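B., you asked whether I could sanity-check this one before it goes into the benchmark set. Here's the sequence:
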Amino acid sequence: MQDILAVTYLWLKAGHIIFVVFWMAGLFMLPRQMIYVHPSGSGSEEEALWVKRMGLLRKIILTPSLILVWVLGLLMSIQLGLLDGAPGLGWLHAKIFVVVLLTGFHGYLVAQSKRIAKGERPLSEKQLRMLGELPGLLLVIIVILVVVVRAF
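And here's what the prediction gave me:
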């Protein structure tokens, strides 16, 4: 039975990492796409093209990846004993907290991209460039929690 759980855990982990990569790629791309909308005129063909691309990014990559990251991550967390109160999981609690922040950031970006799709420009190009760096910073924290802190 332990062998089955170990193999299952490894498949969950592989899927989790794959979809984290997709999700992060989407979180890096969406602010960049919003930047490309800025110089286009409201109602222009160029704006329509970027709005379409943003919508596809959200529907095909971002949202499905977010869902799979959470499902696979929670299944792994359960196998690690999160619900059983297993000791030594402080790193996991911290990681989940950072992933909640990243999920909120995802929601914020989606809301801003929908506003841009309506012709609004709620954020400057500089703000979008700065926001584009946030997923990378949160990813660094997550990797350190999983690889370094977990080892102690």
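One thing to flag: The CA atoms of residues 21 and 51 lie 23 Å apart. Otherwise nothing jumped out at me.
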